[in-house]
């Protein structure tokens, strides 16, 4: 019989040393080009224990967050211009459009706009659990981050991993 420590070692080695989370719930977000911003808005409400907005209000708040993220790019131009693909002004102009997908740069800026940490997860290789793939805004604390599930192909959903729950070992 395997000990709990040995199971953890096996689990960690099969996921490239990443912790695997198997206790979580996902809230589906419409794939309308706003999914990153909608997911962040939803996760920020969960984190702040506020009422989850209905779909129309979620869309409005996502568009407001998008606008604030674009403004944050402009205000931090000197420190962000280097990691934006292509012409900076064109990039910022495009990201202001409601159906343009967001990605890592927008998550980084959203963490600053909201002054909240954001953690992004993906399904592990086996598809049975989640692993953390990116963290933003750690200077705002490491506890209770806004949690997103990235599916690949540019889609994000809102994610909730119960607080005070460590990763669960699995074989």
TrEMBL record:
GO cellular component, one term: cytosol
Domain OTU: 24-162
Pfam families, sorted: OTU
Keyword Nucleotidyltransferase among UniProt keywords: no
UniProt keywords, alphabetically: Cytoplasm, Hydrolase, Protease, Thiol protease, Ubl conjugation pathway
Biological process according to GO: endoplasmic reticulum unfolded protein response; ERAD pathway; protein deubiquitination
A molecular-function term among this protein's GO annotations: cysteine-type deubiquitinase activity
Top-level EC class: hydrolase
Cell compartments where the protein resides: Cytoplasm
InterPro entries in UniProt: OTU4_OTU, OTU_dom, Papain-like_cys_pep_sf
Enzyme Commission designation: 3.4.19.12
PANTHER family cross-referenced by the UniProt entry: HIV-INDUCED PROTEIN-7-LIKE PROTEASE, UBIQUITIN THIOESTERASE OTU
Protein name in the entry: Ubiquitin thioesterase OTU
